[in-house]
Design a protein that fits this description.
With about 400 residues, this protein is an alpha+beta fold. The chain is built from twelve helices and ten strands. It is about 45% helix and about 15% strand. The longest helix is centred in the C-terminal third of the chain and has 29 residues. The radius of gyration is 22 Å and the shape is globular.
Amino acid sequence: MDFRFSEEDEAFRHDFRRWLEANLPRDWRDDGELHDPETKEEFERRRAWHRKLYDAGWMCIHWPKEYGGRGASLIQQFIYHQELERVKAPPTVNFQGIARVGPTLMQWGTSEQKRRYLPKIPPAEEIWCQGLSEPNHGSDLAAVETRAVDEGDHFVVNGCKVWTSNAHHADFTTLLCRTDPSLPKHKGLSYLLVDMRSPGITVRPLVQITGERAFNQVFFEDVRVPKTNLVGEKNQGWLVAMTNMMFERTIHGGRTDMMVEVRQVVELAKKVNWNGRPAWEDEYVRQQIARFACEAEGLKYTSLRQLTRQLKGLPPGPEGSIMKLATSDLNLRLQMFAMQLLGPYSQFEYRAPGAIDHGKWSHRMLAARRATIAAGTNEIQHNIIGERVLGLPKG
């Protein structure tokens, strides 16, 4: 197999790497993890970084040029995310809009919806979230109970969504809701675009164990949504939602280079002492980290297999679920091993005085569980792999 990139693609990498070196915020290079994402100030800092990428032509590179993107190839998209991961660049602020909402509207939206919403997504002029999961149904997306009653020129929405990332910052949300309860659960669903400033919407934060509040519960009480905000056909929203989920699973399927995390654990092992000498000199520590490195390399090549399928125009394979499952599991074990390396210092809270590396490892360990739940729980991924890849009977 030939893992080399073409001269054109390497030139693309060189251009983006050079731009990052010149423009990556200096304070983020030094202590990026210390910025509290929940403050309005930090959100605006990240919006400014987002806008800087956009102004330089480095935002939404996978979007077609007609919608403000670069029309980048799959290989260039892969390189783009490699480079962002390499420098641990600051997060941007409109991930849902760019990665999921925008591409879904390109496929299903009316001409008017495309003209109205797509131009404001890349520059983060309007922030998006998505209303999919509900409190009573976990990963069973088709069992939604949020109702949208047809009232002529608008729908009246009542219900609740949960685990809604960035709802507290969002200007708009997508909303999967039930418009005909008499039909089977995968039918009778519709996909709406809802202004988050509409009367009757209440956003309540879900405080995580890390203290962060990125997830929210969103309540809809007699919220009026114009019929013009219906995406696709009424009662055919499951098809639109599956398009949305296809983009989500592809994204979560493994762009993270876990070797970046492994190298950071190596640096931690060289920094802390075990029995009066650096932990890195301990054979057990090196063996454990070597195992992590082997898994990380395996994930890299699995990700390349996924990329190869896309380049061949083949339908999505099992790599997405495997990447999501294995990456989140490896990350959790890496962070738990970091706690073992730290010993008593692992009890220091994030940013506590005297904490090694400002306590970032305890924060990462607590946050690692989140990835095992988001974008389809690891239990769901086990089911997908077992049933659709291995052909095992349903449990």
